[in-house]
Write a structure and sequence with these properties.
- The complex is a heterodimer.
- Chain A is mainly β.
- Chain A is 0% helix and 54% strand.
- Chain A contains no helices and 11 strands.
- By secondary structure, chain B is mainly beta.
- Classes of the chains: A mainly beta, B mainly beta.
- Strand 10 of chain A pairs parallel with strand 3 of chain B, so a sheet runs across the interface.
Chain lengths: 124, 108
């Protein structure tokens, strides 16, 4: 079955970078884009960006442009999300989620499955 | 910028029907997908498109869309449906994806 296994929790100091991994299995790695989503404590879901595993192209949320780097390693079927210059507001659970889309008169994008999340704590 | 608006909280009596809505200009061109999230868990896809329910999701979950508003309806809400619900769509103008702010559903 499709599985997304994320890396373990991280604790970082302000100004550092954090890199979260998401290892995919159970499907053709290049067949679906991968989204990154985060959720700060007690807050809602926030879309961060998406990566095309076929060519590595990315689209990121305007809020994170300049700080986020999304990459993939096709040899290990692993996606990576690196956030630089982290601050306390970046404390959150970070999820990867596999993209699907259906075209038609009205398209739809949906995310399934999701990884279990990686907790990142930014603290001095 | 892209935005999807949801009511922050909704309540429903056990066994009754509840509708959770999501509004945004991007929904005029794209369907939304809906996610259920329980405390301490990752979000779970419960409905997408005009009439698609993932395998394993009870048929009491349904969706609809009209104009700039999408709705998730739970017919005969159960105690286990108590959760946060999020809508998600793509804004083709800005080439961004966006979540609604989420609706906390309480089953009384």
């Amino acid at each position: 079955q499709v599985q997304l296994v994320q890396s373990g929790a991280e604790v970082k100091k302000p100004g550092a970078s954090v890199k979260v991994s998401c290892k995919a299995s159970g499907y053709t790695f290049t067949g679906n884009w991968m989204h990154w989503v985060r959720q700060a404590p007690g807050q809602g879901l926030e879309w961060m960006g998406v990566v095309n595993p076929g060519d590595g192209r990315t689209v990121s949320a305007q809020k994170f442009q300049g700080r986020i780097t999304m990459t993939r390693d096709t040899s290990t079927s692993t996606f990576y999300m690196e956030l630089s210059n982290v601050r306390s507001e970046d404390t959150a659970v970070y999820y990867c989620a596999r993209d699907h889309s259906l075209s038609g008169d009205r398209s739809v994008w949906y995310l399934d499955p999701w990884g279990r999340g990686t907790l990142v704590i930014v603290s001095p | 910028s892209s935005e999807l608006t949801q009511d922050p909280a909704v309540s429903v009596a056990l066994g009754q029907t509840v509708r959770i809505t999501c509004q945004g200009d991007s929904l005029r061109n794209c369907y939304t997908s809906w996610y259920q999230q329980k405390p301490g868990q990752a979000p779970l896809l419960v409905f997408y498109g005009d009439n698609k329910r993932p395998s394993g999701i009870p048929d009491r979950f349904s969706g609809s869309s009209s104009g700039n508003t999408a709705s998730l309806t739970i017919t005969g809400a159960q105690a286990e449906d108590e959760a946060d619900y999020y809508c998600f769509s793509r804004d083709s103008i800005y080439n961004q994806w966006v979540f609604g702010g989420g609706t906390k559903l309480t089953v009384l």
